[in-house]
């Protein structure tokens, strides 16, 4: 089909030189695809290189401590990706003798690997003609074929996957999949694509109908919830603070954080000091309280916005086992807390 040939030809001329395109090693392709989920190439590239230096093969990754994996992941967000990456590496080493499955059907069974990642590995590494569909692919297909089915609807997911599968070049599946993703990333961009030089502009329905800015269609997400986080940053006279690993499921699972108090709204200094005086870590303890940031730091996640304040609590001694302040940079923490640690002078 001319559509596929045009894309592959465009890709051969315009593709970016990226390290994971120099190999068909499943471990490298898998690692790159997991890192690049929800992450732009320019941000993900240094993480990819760092991970490969630390864990050159799936065996080193499998044998690593999860806390080290999370520490290297710090700043990328969506930490479940890192936990799943580590768990799957251990499964591949311990159950599959270090050999990656070679088919889409087997790859998709692995933890943290969905339709997109399984398709990418199967096509790029093993030449299986199974189409990838990511945000870039949705955009190219919806514009070129003038499809207004919402891309995040059940119908849309099936429709675009089926269309991509029809279009894939059966003899060159790796080239086609990488071509259509790259085309969406640097040619058919979300905003202000340069349609004048697009090799598909003659037959692009969105361009003909002047609907470039309207496609693809996406169902509006539920409004993000506001949450109010207050971290207690203890500082004792012997140079210790309190860091606890977050064991609950959800955001930041297995990362470390300062003691957290969640409130229903923002609190001023006097009300908060009164609110915490009976906290288990402060009960019958003399302490001095100060507020690091008068204005809440807003940390935006996909489903919630965290309005965060860091409260500095000076005490003589801690009521629980502490962590030496000069070691806290060694712990895997959410980027929100990492930024605070970098900026605060203990």
UniProtKB/TrEMBL annotation:
- Keyword GTP-binding appears in the UniProt entry: no
Alphabetically list the UniProt keywords: 4Fe-4S, DNA damage, DNA repair, Glycosidase, Hydrolase, Iron, Iron-sulfur, Metal-binding
Q: Which SMART domains match?
A: ENDO3c
The EC number(s) given in the record are 3.2.2.31
Q: Name one GO molecular function term.
A: purine-specific mismatch base pair DNA N-glycosylase activity
Q: Where is the HhH-GPD domain?
A: 35-186
A biological-process GO annotation? base-excision repair
- Kindly list the cofactors needed: [4Fe-4S] cluster
What does the UniProt cofactor note say?
Answer: Binds 1 [4Fe-4S] cluster.
Origin: domain of life:
Bacteria
Functionally, this protein is described as follows:
Adenine glycosylase active on G-A mispairs. MutY also corrects error-prone DNA synthesis past GO lesions which are due to the oxidatively damaged form of guanine: 7,8-dihydro-8-oxoguanine (8-oxo-dGTP).
Matching PANTHER family, A to Z? Answer: ADENINE DNA GLYCOSYLASE
Give the family, as the similarity comment puts it. Belongs to the Nth/MutY family.
Give the protein name, as stated in the record. Adenine DNA glycosylase
Could you tell me which species this protein originates from?
Answer: Seonamhaeicola aphaedonensis
